[in-house]
Amino acid sequence: GAVVSQHPSWVICKSGTSVKIECRSLDFQATTMFWYRQFPKQSLMLMATSNEGSKATYEQGVEKDKFLINHASLTLSTLTVTSAHPEDSSFYICSARDVSLGQFFGPGTRLTVL
Amino acid sequence: RKEVEQDPGPFNVPEGATVAFNCTYSNSASQSFFWYRQDCRKEPKLLMSVYSSGNEDGRFTAQLNRASQYISLLIRDSKLSDSATYLCVVNSRTDSWGKFQFGAGTQVVVTP
Fold it and tell me: Is pLDDT above 80 for B29?
């Protein structure tokens, strides 16, 4: 199947700093990528839909100014958590859609904000 | 009410036994259904799609009941490696493809 990578796989940062997470489709082009967040023992919650060349579509309750999404190319989307706080600590997962092969998830980024 | 609900478990299953569990969804416009498997601290991985007529993939059988709005997963001859959290995933025909609604998962623990 298609491969989606994320970087970094884990990050620890101080409260107030910004963290950028990259999501790449390695062997296919993805016009649409999705960003999810998962808290312990909870379901993955869709945060936003990232569209190449246009603004991301955010789900209700997700602050667009706090979670900046950029989909600069057909193989790269980035999520920047601005001014991170401990409550932003979570497992962030991206997924990308290949038209013929289906939906694939990245390995996730575990963010811990101290 | 959550759009997708699952019994969190854990379901403790002796090796070789059969285990089954359901997932209910609230949106009647849901059109695509999947079971994903998630291991601890890892990303979800597709286990199988769920078709209207029900489908089987080796030891795994998935069923869809549109009238009652639930899907089910049955695992036969459980292996230790089947221990994981099984996520029910639903995509609505009113949503763009890939915009999935996830259940919180059902934990399965297969014991020797």
Answer: yes
Burial A98-109 (b: 16+ CB within 10 A, else e): beeeebbbbbbb
- Sign of the CA dihedral with A38 first, then B89, B78, and B108 last: positive
pLDDT digits (tens, 9 = 90+) for B32-45: 899 999 998 888 99
H/E element holding A103? strand A102-105
Position B98 confidence tier, pLDDT thresholds 50, 70, 90? low
What's the N-to-C CA distance of chain B in angstroms?
Answer: 37
Q: What is the pLDDT of residues B45-95, one digit of tens each?
A: 989 999 989 999 999 999 999 999 999 999 999 999 999 999 999 987 666
**B102 Cβ under 8 Å from any chain A Cβ:** yes
Residue in A44, A60, A18 with CA at minimum distance from that of residue A106: A44
B-contacting residues of A 15-34, CB under 8 Å?
32, 34
Q: Which candidate from B45, B97, B99 shows the least CB-CB separation from A46?
A: B99
User: Which of the 8 DSSP states describes residue A44?
Assistant: -
- CA–CA dist A8, B67 (Å, integer): 44
Q: CB–CB of A81/A87 below 8 Å?
A: no
The total of other beta-carbon atoms located within 10 Å of residue B79's CB is 12
User: What does the pLDDT read at residue A40?
Assistant: 85
Tell me the two tokens of residue A57: 């579509």
